[in-house]
Amino acid sequence: MHVQDVELVISAVAQSQYPDDTLPEIALTGRSNVGKSSLINKLINRRKMARTSGTPGKTQTLNFYRLDEKLYFVDLPGYGYAKVSKKDREKFSHIIETYLQTRTKLKGVISLIDVRHEPSEDDKAMYNYLKYYGIPVLVVATKGDKVSRGKWNQRESQLKKALDLNQTDDFVIFSSQTGIGADKIWQWVGEQTEV
Ligand code: GDP
Questions:
Q1: d(Cα 18, Cα 107) in Å, to the nearest integer?
Q2: Which family does it belong to (predicted)?
Q3: Is residue 143 lining ligand 1, measured as CB closer than 6 Å?
Q4: For residues 47 and 60, is the Cβ–Cβ distance under 8 A?
Q5: Residue from 146, 151, 144 nearest 179 by CA
């Protein structure tokens, strides 16, 4: 999909602030610094629409980006940032869980992990949580350019095993530097939202 028009409609903390139109939503989740803002910017062809982190863990809102009056990308707060206090972590998870459990317009979640690292306990918990609630999920391994192409299949198998994915579960290796994987992500988004 080639996105013409992007608008950050609202940075919401409470349910009452979620947009009340009928467009389908795709949410994006991952630990702080995984490359979520870079992925969003690459997919929508903007350099700085989503904030890239100088201050990881600071984004505590659900950012609703409306794309061409067709769908929303909902940027969820990054999790697992060590310097965030326990109280703030609980607040994040409350914000995220409320959204994931109540939002009927949510059509799928893009769950980001770093291609170079074993998934964290938080990554595994998020994946299991999404599966438990029956939410369609695409696992995207970010920063693909940091691993040589010859190692991709091996990394894919290792990451799928660590997350306990089936071989058929949706999985893409992506790089915001080269754009590789973007087409597959858009294809998946299209399948979930029918746009
Ligand atoms: P966020 O906290 O998940 O939103 O992560 P950011 O998008 O801000 O990225 C965190 C850091 O990783 C930044 O320094 C980015 O430049 C870098 N980064 C993100 N995506 C990629 C990628 O695909 N390749 C490489 N080499 N670096 C990336």
A1: 15
A2: Belongs to the TRAFAC class TrmE-Era-EngA-EngB-Septin-like GTPase superfamily. EngB GTPase family.
A3: yes
A4: no
A5: 144
**Ligand 1 center from residue 59 Cα (angstroms):** 15
Single out the residue of 143, 137, 83, 139 nearest to residue 117, CA to CA.
143
What global pTM score does this model have?
Answer: 0.93
Kindly give the distance from the C-alpha atom of residue 23 to the centroid of ligand 1, in angstroms, as a whole number: 28
12 class by beta-carbon count within 10 Å (0-12 exposed, 13-18 middle, 19+ buried): middle
d(CA 20, ligand 1 centre) in Å: 31
178: Cβ below 6 Å to ligand 1? Answer: no
Buried/exposed 55-79: b ≥16 CB within 10 Å, e otherwise: ebbbbebbbbbbbeebbbbbbbbbb
So what's the ipTM on this one? Answer: 0.99
Domains and CATH numbers, the chain: 6-193 (3.40.50.300)
CA–CA separation, 128 vs 67, rounded Å?
A: 28
